[in-house]
């Protein structure tokens, strides 16, 4: 009898995170809206969150939220987002982060419905969403397209993606992305982890259609993004925010200091650094 009781306790402990996560999803998200009508500006962030595991090898989504709040962005593209896996405590990461930030969200998974997905978060309503599986040789790769309603008359199309590594078919993936984005008129933003340096032919192909906001804002030092700690290697810029049809580029930078006065592994929630761009429309 004691053995049976122990088994039941172990099963309960394993299922508890999933039960809590399910109950959590039943509570509506309290949205904290943006201020586009008064500023005409939108702050974007792209952040590969490394499944919530920081440079100290600890899983900590609260730290990811803290890293994001350093900049308080309006629209966020996340990569390497899990959903419901035991390794992440059964948590729907995109929803958890969206709740903590008071944002609308959409999550699209790669790899057996649970892992390696991308997410789009926004302070403004996401009024239309489409998700695509991209051509790949290795792990599945995805592209999210969301239309975001900034006010009653102005919408913005935002694309979030995560390309494959060097031995994947990134040329085909870039062409797939450009085929999809070229069909959308008006202002567009394309952001994510491209796993490509800015001097590669694939990125040069992107910049034939989009403005690389980091390079446009600071041509001499657009900022490196990987690894986050102790510091990115020179030339390792693989996370980008591209844009079209904006009236002014207000700012673009890599977020390198998560906790002022501290420079240690536990400061960084991911192996990537976030990139932030503010645009005016």
Defining key terms:
30% strand, globular, alpha+beta, six-stranded mixed beta sheet, 7 helices, Deoxyribonuclease I, Chain A
The CATH architecture: 4-Layer Sandwich
Q: Tell me the CATH topology.
A: Deoxyribonuclease I, Chain A
The biggest beta sheet reads: 6 strands, mixed
The helix/strand order is HHEHEHEEEEEHEHEHEEE
Side by side, the strands of the main sheet go 3-4-2-1-12-11
CATH superfamily: Endonuclease/exonuclease/phosphatase
Gyration radius, rounded: 19 Å
> What level of helicity do the residues show?
10-25%
Beta-strand content estimate: 25-35%
Low-confidence stretches: none
- What is the CATH C level class, in words? Alpha Beta
| Helix/strand class | alpha+beta
Query: What is the residue-mean pLDDT, rounded to a whole number?
Result: 91
Tell me, what's the shape?
globular
| Separate helix tally | 7
What oligomeric arrangement do these chains adopt? single chain
* Through-space gap between termini: 68 Å
Total DSSP E strands: 12
Please, how many domains?
1
Structure commentary:
With 281 residues, this protein is an alpha+beta fold. The chain has a single domain, classed as Deoxyribonuclease I, Chain A (4-Layer Sandwich). The chain is built from 7 helices and 12 strands. The protein has helices spanning 2-25, 36-39, 61-69, 93-101, 170-181, 201-206, 213-217; strands at residues 41-48, 75-81, 104-110, 115-122, 126-134, 141-149, 155-162, 188-193, 211-212, 239-244, 248-254, 275-280. It has a 6-stranded mixed β-sheet. α3 (61-69) crosses α4 (93-101). It is globular, with a radius of gyration of 19 Å. 41% of the residues are buried.
């Amino acid at each position: 009898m004691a053995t049976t009781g122990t088994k039941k306790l172990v099963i309960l402990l394993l299922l508890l995170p999933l039960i809590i996560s399910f109950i959590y999803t039943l509570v509506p998200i309290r949205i904290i809206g943006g201020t586009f009508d008064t500023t005409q500006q939108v702050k974007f962030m792209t952040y590969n969150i490394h499944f919530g595991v920081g440079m100290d090898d600890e899983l900590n989504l609260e730290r990811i939220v803290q890293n994001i709040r350093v900049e308080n962005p309006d629209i966020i593209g996340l990569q390497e987002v899990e959903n419901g896996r035991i390794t992440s405590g059964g948590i729907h990461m995109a929803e958890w982060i969206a709740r903590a930030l008071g944002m609308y969200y959409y999550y699209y998974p790669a790899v057996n419905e649970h892992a390696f997905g991308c997410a789009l978060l926004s302070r403004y309503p996401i009024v239309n969403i489409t998700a695509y599986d991209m051509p790949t040789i290795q792990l599945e790769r995805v592209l999210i397209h969301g239309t975001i309603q900034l006010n009653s008359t102005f919408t913005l199309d935002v694309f979030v993606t995560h390309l494959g590594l060097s031995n994947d078919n990134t040329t085909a993936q870039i062409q797939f992305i450009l085929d999809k984005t070229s069909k959308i008129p008006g202002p567009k933003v394309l952001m994510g982890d491209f796993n490509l340096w800015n001097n590669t032919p694939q990125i040069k192909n992107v910049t034939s259609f989009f403005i690389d906001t980091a390079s446009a804002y600071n041509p001499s030092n657009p900022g490196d993004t990987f690894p986050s700690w102790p510091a990115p290697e020179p030339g390792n810029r693989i996370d980008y925010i591209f844009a079209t049809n904006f009236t002014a580029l207000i700012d673009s930078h890599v977020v390198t200091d998560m906790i002022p006065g501290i420079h240690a592994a536990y400061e960084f929630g991911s192996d990537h650094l976030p990139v932030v761009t503010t645009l005016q429309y």
